[in-house]
Amino acid sequence: LLYGYQAMAKATGCDDDPETVRALGEAHAALNSSPCDLDVAEQLVKRYQALVRRPSSSACQRKPGREGLP
Description:
Blueprint: H1 2-12, H2 18-31, H3 38-53
Helix pairs in contact: 1-3, 2-3
């Protein structure tokens, strides 16, 4: 799931946004921690999803040639 949203972030240009990059790192770290606190990981993944899915802003612009992607 996280990698799918990472691909979406790249397609929409959000992969360069510092806030989105930080959210991805936090979600990834939480999911790979041992033991994994699922409640925390879920909230961090949801935060990352929200950032990637937010309406276009100056930080997230579609990259040329990616028009067919969500």
